[in-house]
From TrEMBL:
Main location group: membrane
Domain HAMP intervals: 191-244
Histidine kinase domain: residues covered: 252-458
Protein name, as recorded: histidine kinase
Catalytic activity line of the entry: ATP + protein L-histidine = ADP + protein N-phospho-L-histidine
Location in or out of the cell: Cell membrane
Keyword check for Transferase: yes
Length: 473
């Protein structure tokens, strides 16, 4: 059954600090109540046991003074001030000063086999007496009273701690006080602990998409809150870098798209303004060329966006050595390609994406090669390593990472292929990363040397050694 909003707010407050304090205080109240009740019982039992022991001792001491023909007046020497000697008819034979003039304190008549009994006797006025009822021993009865049974009652008025609810009130007050102190301690500790989370939340609330430079405060040590703060700061750092990359990407993309669009608009406007001077067929051919370049850029941007977004692609076992040979043989004409591959280079990946990487590397190598391109697919430890080398001018060390950035094209590349999108190598590296591999440019005696590394399927690590099985020239 759903609680009304008012009751829900009362019993299920939103504040975690309040919830924990209420729970801890409630549990403390329950446990302290159980402990307090046990202590009360022990105190009551202890006081009663002590009074009854004193009463039995006082009764024994008095009976020791009674002799045939001599029944002394009881003179209490302890708090047991009510002492009466009563005959079998209930008549008081002797009484202490406090018990004189009072009727028999009790009507109890202990039997011979159980001569001593403890009792609490209360009057109609509500006054209670704690006493020990003792039957005089048969031997003494015969010698002193000729066999008539006599009974001795020794006791005292019930102490105030037992007669009133003072003990219960004191215990209840102590329980409430201790439970309150425990609850306050939890409130204080929770405030210090949750205050760190509050500081993190407040800082996170100040962070906006336009300013991701803020960082949450990091407590010292390796507590859960410290680890949370460090994780949040690392996440913010990655988010800030990602946003910066997206902004650079948006800026670069808009520039790369604006340039061909501006050229296209200019040619079309010239054709409209000067119909007699501009050849419409030439304008259409130029427009188609620009459109093809725009289409290439948009397609590459979509591929790059899907890779950066981590969209899953269907993976399957692929013999990447055979794939390299197939793609090398598919290129006919132009700069010759020499390809060599080892057996059983089985990787888990997307065939379409891996084909795109190999094609991009081969196209790039053929574009810059002087006389030929060499492609080698081999096993190195637990990785398939595909090396694509050309004998062109190579890439300067300072440009080897820059060429993998989006829309970055070196002067030689722009000269050899003006219509390129500048996204091929960026896409290739992202595909390598999506396959848990790497794509780098390494040192080479001549030309450029691109090296693609992709992990092999574990079951294939120990298969046929890396012996060339296919070559193509």
């Amino acid at each position: 059954m759903l609680l009304p909003d008012s009751l829900r707010a009362l019993f299920l407050p939103d504040s975690l600090r309040t919830r924990t304090t209420m729970a801890v205080a409630g549990l403390a109240l329950i446990f302290m109540t159980a402990i307090g009740a046990s202590i009360d019982r022990l105190v009551v039992d202890g006081v009663e046991a002590q009074i009854f022991q004193e009463a039995q001792r006082a009764a024994g001491n008095y009976l020791g003074t009674v002799r045939p023909g001599y029944t002394p007046v009881p003179v209490p020497k302890t708090r047991i001030d009510l002492i009466q000697l009563v005959d079998s008819h209930g008549r008081v034979v002797a009484a202490s000063a406090a018990a004189a003039g009072r009727p028999a304190l009790s009507t109890a008549r202990p039997p011979v086999d159980n001569r001593m009994q403890n009792q609490i006797v209360c009057s109609a006025q509500g006054e209670c007496v704690m006493l020990a009822a003792v039957r005089v021993a048969p031997l003494e009865t015969r010698e002193i009273w000729h066999g008539e049974p006599h009974y001795l009652y020794a006791g005292t008025a019930e102490p105030a701690i037992l007669a009133s609810h003072r003990l219960a009130f004191l215990t209840a007050g102590g329980i409430v006080l201790i439970a309150g102190l425990i609850g306050w301690g939890n409130w204080w500790l929770a405030g210090r602990t949750i205050g760190r989370v509050t500081a993190i939340r407040a800082t996170m609330a100040e962070i906006t998409a336009s300013d991701l430079s803020l960082r949450v405060p990091e407590p010292p040590g390796r507590t859960e809150y410290a680890l949370l703060a460090r994780t949040a700061n690392r996440t913010l750092a990655r988010l800030e870098e990602s946003v910066k990359q997206q902004r650079r990407f948006a800026s670069t993309t808009s520039h790369e798209l604006r340039t061909p669009l501006t050229g296209l608009r200019t040619r079309l406007e010239e054709a409209l303004l000067y119909p007699g001077e501009v050849d419409p067929h030439e304008t259409i051919r130029d427009a188609l060329a620009v459109t093809e370049r725009l289409e290439t850029i948009v397609d590459d941007l979509l591929v790059l966006a899907r890779l950066r977004a981590g969209d899953p692609a269907a993976h399957e076992p692929i013999d990447i050595g055979a794939l390299v040979i197939e793609e090398a043989t598919a290129e006919v004409g132009g700069v010759p390609v020499q390809a060599r591959a080892c057996r059983d280079l089985i990787v888990m990946g997307s065939r379409i994406q891996l084909i795109r990487v190999v094609d991009n590397l081969l196209t790039n190598a053929r574009r810059h090669a002087g006389t030929g391109v060499q492609v080698v697919a081999e096993r190195v430890d637990d990785q398939a390593v595909i090396t694509v080398c050309d004998d062109g001018d190579g890439i300067a060390p300072q440009d080897r990472e820059r060429v993998f950035e989006r829309f970055v094209r070196l002067d030689d590349g722009r000269r050899r292929e003006p219509g390129g999108s500048g996204l091929g190598l960026a896409i290739s590296r992202d595909i390598a990363h999506a396959h848990h591999g790497t794509l780098r440019i390494e040192d080479s005696p001549r030309g450029a040397r691109f090296v693609l590394r992709i992990p092999l399927i574990p079951a294939m690590h120990g298969s046929t050694p890396g012996i060339p099985v296919e070559e193509f020239s």
